[in-house]
Specification:
heterodimer; A: mainly alpha; Ferritin; B: alpha/beta; GMP Synthetase, Chain A, domain 3; four-stranded mixed sheet; three-stranded mixed sheet; elongated
Chain lengths: ~250, ~160
Amino acid sequence: METDQALFNYLLRLADSSLILSQRLAEWCGHGPILEEDIALTNVSLDLLGHATALLTYAGKGKSADDLAFLRSEREYRNILLAEQPNGDFACTMLRQFLTDSWHYYLYASLQKSKDETLAAISVKFLKEITYHLRHSSGWVLRLGDGTAESHLRIQNALDELWSFTGDLFDSDSADELMLAAGIGADLNEIRKQWTAHVSELLNKATLKIPESSFMQKGSLQGRHTEYLGYLLAEMQYLPRTYRDAKW
Amino acid sequence: MVTKEFLVGLLSEIPDPEIPVITIKDLGILREVEMGKDSCSVTITPTYSGCPAMRLIEDQIRDVLSGQGIKNIQVNMSYSPAWTTDWISDEAREKLRKYGIAPPEHTSVDKGILMGKSTFPACPQCKSINTELISQFGSTACKALYRCKDCREPFDYFKCI
């Protein structure tokens, strides 16, 4: 694989993960359990959309960020499986957010030192925002886990449901290896260590139990997604695909 | 022929679309202006990555410049160095306070925020520091929502990044 193709694939992995999670969070708009949370979830969604835009614009290769977002099919998407999982209840959304925020936090902290200057610069910017996201989702995981019997049950169910998608966060392919060797990409083994330590500590504090089964879903780097991504893209891409010259 | 100083002066007066009491210069969004013969290139930086006001700010810059007869206008978005609340001038902080938005208290983001350590900004209405956080995310990406426990007024806080 050529270095510029590897960089393109690498940037798509980052961009798609932010874009799909942003779209999921936007589904909460007008449906939040309280007004402040409705606003918080859409604020986070907006930050993630900004991250996706910056990454897709940089990835480019002669295509605009909009073209990359709206004119690629499910099999061409390289987002993490966790991002496309349905919102479920508020506990499920918050747990998914916490697991992803923690991944983003260590990933971009590492990418701040990337040899690719553009990627390093935007990582500095993203990390500032992700710090706020992580603080927000951590607070809710603690509160729901160590809360009432009902809230504990709901977020424990979410953890049981979502845990098998966390292995995919650290899967790598030849693009990752090339980028790591070039000093551009992050070392996912290192990120996995930091992530596992942080996530285990907080879940433990929240009185939640990590499932014992070690089975992990995979396939997103090869474009093999769960059934949910197709439906999400159908909704997200409907307008620009139907009205090809629509402008806003 | 208009001078660069004149154009910078005009661009510096463009108000922020969401907080119109301060300008894009006050906020540190306007980074650089380069002038050619009948061209002008302006570099701006977003406060938050997803700030929806950036498109509008870009349009306003184009309006101002084309109003001065400049044909060839380029607006660049720069992410480096990353925007920080440290760039908000003291004068602008005072304007924010008078407008009812508590200005950022500290320099940049401190790591304590991750551990749940909070800072309590003074109420812009009654100056009390007996305030509490309602939500880390407010009416725009750059603000958090607080409440004053003395005068009972809720208020926006421009959070540090």
